[in-house]
Amino acid sequence: MADLLQGTLDLLILKSLALGKMHGLGISRRIEQITRGAFVVKPGSLFPALHRLEEQGWLAASWGESETNRRAKYYKLTKSGEKQLGAEAAHWQRIVAAMTFALEAS
Amino acid sequence: MRLLRRIAGLWRNIVHRNRVERELDDELAGYVELLTDENVRRGMARSAARRAALLEVGGVQNVKTSVREVRTGARLEAIVHDIRYAWRGLKRTPGFTAIAIVTLALGIGANTSVFSIINAVLLQPLPFREPDRLVRVYERRSGSGESNVSGHEYVAWRDRNRTLSGLSMWTWTSFNLTGDGEPQAVVAMQTTANFFTVQGVTPVLGRGFADGEDGSGARRVAVLTSSLWRTRYGGDSSIVGRTILLDGVAVTVVGVMPPLQGFDPDLWVPMNLPGEVLKVGRHANYVVGRLQPGVSITTATTDLAAVSKRVEAEDPDMNTGHSVAIVSQYLDTVDGARRPLFAALAAVACVLLIGCTNVAHLLLQRAATRQREVAVRIALGASRGRVIQLMLAESVLVSVIGAVVGVVLAMIVVRALPSLEAVRIPRLETVSIDGRVLAATFGLTLLTGIVSGLVPALRTTRPALRQWMGDGARSGNALSGRLGGAFVVSEVALAVVLLIGAALLIQSFARLMRVDPGFDPRGVLSVDLSLPRTRYRTPEQIAQSYAALLARVSSLPGVRSAAATSTVPLSGCCNNMHLSFEGRPPAPKGKDETAVMNVVTPGYFATMRIPIVSGRDFADADARLALPLIRYWDKAPYPARFADPQPGPVALINETMARQYWPNVTAIGKRFRILESPWITVVGIAADVKHMTLSGPPPADFYLSNAQEPFASLLLVMKTTGDPLALAPAVRREIRAFDKELPVNAIASMEQVVRRSVGRPRFNALLNGIFGGIALVLSVVGTYGVIAYGVAQRTHEIGIRTALGAQPQDVVQLILGRAFALTMVGLAIGLVGSMAVTRLLEGMLFEIEPTDAFTFAGIALLIAVASLVAGYVPTRRALLIDPAVALRDD
Fold first, then answer.
1. CB contact B66 to A (< 8 Å)
2. Which residue of A has its CA nearest to B74?
3. Residue B526 backbone dihedrals phi, psi, to 5 degrees
4. Is residue B819 very low, low, confident or very high in pLDDT (cuts 50, 70, 90)?
5. Element holding B674 (H helix, E strand)
6. Is residue B817 very low, low, confident or very high in pLDDT (cuts 50, 70, 90)?
7. How far is CA B140 from the centre of its chain?
8. Percentage of residues in chain B with pLDDT exceeding 70?
9. Do B34 and A70 touch (CB under 8 A)?
10. Which of the 8 DSSP states describes residue B121?
11. Mapped to the 3 state alphabet, what secondary structure does B241-300 carry?
């Protein structure tokens, strides 16, 4: 799926960071993994989204060493990011439920 | 919290821009490294792994661009970038820049000036506590409209109303202020003690009047205006408690008040209210009231009208038909200024719109030369919105620079305003360019930039056009030609409306100046004097003093004749008196018979060259022993020596009064009475004189002799042989020699008085004339620009036509014909628009219809000529096109 719905990418990024801090490539791979390969996020959409979320205060960034000893920028959820994840997840559930009802209606 | 974070982000992105960028570089580089490592782990060779990684990233620059776009302040940064770019562009084309800036500076400067006047005069609340509750109360009479109030009416309203929280009365007077320096004539408001409380002002020093200070035997006190306090007493705060001399009487200063807009006295003194209440027939006072909270003017009017009804029932002789009229103090102060100011605002808005149209066309021409650049930008991925923003930056920048120049122009105009005192617009002295004016100007500037830039920007970036555009300019001809045509049509239409409005006002003024004022102002000097009542106590003293003064000034070399009068023509004052006529039943109640009283000395009519159409002038032999004639109420005592044998009371009347009260018979020898005066015989009829305004018909006037009804405040008038004002110092010397403490209120030539009386119409004509002129010039320049550009673009076509045998007249028809045709369409729209719009000028016009056919035709002719002027140069250029050169160019 090439086009991510607006808002979907934000939710996926927040979700992928729920377990702990991670660098850009890690986030990308993690999203691929938790969506079972349905979403592959390219840097062209990933980095603007990360920077936007950081400016909104939902992510905090710090520099660290990767497992292969590369310098990388790590992102983690802030307090308000966790709250946002909860809110967006709930919102998404409602949409999914509503859409499911709608499509199953005869 | 959220805002704080945004501001912090903005700070970081702008101030630490380099670090932010470096970190982004590092982050992306790290990403590529990690991806390469991953690929290597999957078994790729290092170089292939790196290539694959870079491929997956898909262009580091693109990623960076899209990250930059989401940053806080990205828009701002883009705007700053655009402005820098626009600035460089403008510097490259100084000619265009200068023309555009001058055009917009004129437009914005004119708008700022007019708005600053409207802001100060109309929009600022009056500087009083809860000014919305302040009202002016007048007496209303069936038939004659609003008039001044008498003391007993005031007291009745004050004591019996249920809708006002306060009611105050005042009358105007003047004093001779002496001691502490030069004698100075001061204008004073004589008020009831509650005046400052009702009006809602607090003193800057000391206090206002205390209860009872308007009683008959009260201590004499005064309150100064802060301007008199500053100019005469140097702002010394020990003034409170000091005594000053008013007409030679010691008066204690109890306070200093801030300037009261709408009133401009030098000081206030309490009136003698019990004394004023006795003068039942004297309607000479003004009344201001404060409504109770929540009470409307209508309710208060009903309330006071009921009071007036009861007063009428109690004393029908003096009060029949006297009701009440209430207007808000705000309207009472500014009403007359509203229409001219809004007309001026509409005019400057039109001027600016024409300016915008011109600048829009200039921008369109520039945009045409930049079409390739725009195409490249869009091809490289800039969005249409981004390119439009880039182009708007240029027009907004031009208009901002224009606005800065315009505001400077407006400051000059505003500084010059107080010298236009003859315009008589209230609060004109308070005009300034304040925050509100600047904010409005700023908004207008942005709007101007967008209005003038939007059409060119939209046109240049139009997608369809870009696709079909082969090699640029020429295929856009038809469209840009049509747009240019629309510009010409609209600016000509606007200019026509402005010019017709201006022409109507100018003609009104010219007609006003041709009105015969009924006297000859040439060479006449007028000197405003008043004899202090304390030293000139008796009517006899007053009459003799003026006779002595006149003897002095008439002996001056250069003075042909001298006389004195209570009212000079066109000074807009009137003293309306109740009359009754011999041999005729009194007028029915409520249908008052009145005429305006003037007091003059013998020789006044000759000095002013007012013809006496029949009968005679006053003579020295008319002097009476019993002075004065008029008693203001029926129980007033008769003057001494009333019963002695002496010359009978006489009057001259004007032709209007003769026609009004003695139609079909000669008025000479007929007799009338003023209030409780003895019978007065008409001995002469003088030609009508415009006492109030040039524009209105003269009211019924009668003249009494100062030797029978002496007035303490008269103006000396002198017919001189040379420049009357040159005589002023000598006249002042004579007056000082007569009485060194006698102040001269004002010296003016009668020609100045006439000019002053038409200050407002002259201002309207001048202002709109200037705006109309600017509009005409701008529209001619604009038409020239469009036609000339058309010729430049059609060089090739004209070359072909000429090559194919077109004659010069064909080319003339093509180019000049277009200029003329477009102008005619604009003219037609403008004429129709004017029919609708000039109606709004109605109250400002004099003896000319708002749809005057002559004016419309004249402006149409002017515009037709202007279009030929605008089309002349481009046409000549077209005629000089050499087909060979034009075709080779291609």
1. yes
2. A52
3. -120, 140
4. confident
5. strand B671-674
6. confident
7. 28
8. 96
9. yes
10. I
11. CCEEEECCEEEEEEEEECCCCCCCCCEEEECCHHHHHHCCCCCCEEEEEEECCCCCHHHH
B566-594 per-position pLDDT tens digit = 989 988 667 788 899 998 888 776 677 88
Q: Is the CB of A48 less than 8 angstroms away from the CB of B67?
A: yes
Distance CA B635, CA B218 (A): 24
CB nearest to A43's CB, from B23, B31, B33: B31
Q: Which residue has the tokens 């993994």?
A: A33
Copy the structure tokens of residue B559: 């003075």
ipTM above 0.90? no
Name the residue of chain B whose CA is nearest to A80's CA: B2
Percent of the residues in chain B that have a pLDDT greater than 90, as a whole number = 40
Contact of B23 with chain A, judged by CB distance below 8 Å, is answered with yes
Q: Which residues of B touch A43 (CB under 8 A)?
A: 28, 31, 56-58, 63
Confidence of residue B382 (pLDDT cuts 50, 70, 90): confident
Count CB pairs under 8 A between chains A and B: 69
| Chain Cα centroid distance, residue B441 | 18
Query: CB A23 to CB B34 under 8 A?
Result: yes
Distance CA B567, CA B532 (A): 18
pLDDT at B359 over 70: yes
Going through B296-356 in order, the beta strands assigned E by DSSP cover 322-328
Could you tell me the two tokens for A60? 């905090």
pLDDT at residue B239 in the model: 92
B718, containing H or E segment: strand B715-720
For B843-865, what is the mean pLDDT? Answer: 90
Nearest-CA distance from B61 to chain A in Å?
A: 10
Task: Please give the distance of CA B733 from its chain centroid, rounded to a whole number.
Answer: 38
Render pLDDT for B669-690 as a digit per residue (tens, 0 to 9).
999 999 888 999 999 999 999 9
pTM of the complete model: 0.75
Lowest mean pLDDT among B4-8, B215-219, B646-650: B4-8
**pLDDT tens, position by position, B426-472:** 788 788 899 999 999 999 999 999 988 998 888 888 765 444 444 44
Q: What is the helix, strand, coil percentage profile of chain A, to 5?
A: 55, 15, 30
Q: Amino acid identity of B702? A: F
Residues of B in contact with A57 (CB under 8 A): 2, 5
Name all domains of chain A by residue range, CATH numbers in brackets.
8-104 (1.10.10.10)
> Inter-chain contact A47–B66, Cβ cutoff 8 Å?
yes
CB proximity list for B459: less than 8 A, separation 6 or greater:
B364, B367, B465, B479, B480, B483
Closest to B712 measured CA to CA, from B478, B535, B847: B535
Q: What is the pLDDT of residues B135-190, one digit of tens each?
A: 999 998 766 667 889 899 999 999 999 999 999 999 888 788 887 777 788 889 99
Q: Is B434 left (phi over 0), alpha (psi -120 to 50) or beta?
A: beta
Cis peptide before B628 (omega within 30 of 0): yes
Residue B830's closest CA among B348, B354, B444? B354
3-state secondary structure B565-621: ECCCCCCCCCCEEEEEECCCCCCCCCCCCEEEEEEECCCHHHHCCCCEEEECCCCHH
To probe the interface with A, which of B13, B22, B28, B31 has the most A CB atoms within 10 Å? Answer: B31
Between B321 and A4, where is the model more confident? B321
Residues in chain A whose Cβ is within 8 Å of chain B: 23-25, 42-45, 47-49, 51-52, 55-57, 66, 68, 70-73
Looking at residue B710, the DSSP 8-state letter turns out to be -
Rounded Cα distance, B642 and B505, in Å: 55
Per-domain residue ranges for chain B? Answer: 2-72, 143-320, 336-514+759-888, 531-742
- Residue B402's contacts (CB-CB under 8 Å, 6 or more residues apart) are B100, B101, B102, B103, B104, B105, B107, B108, B445, B448
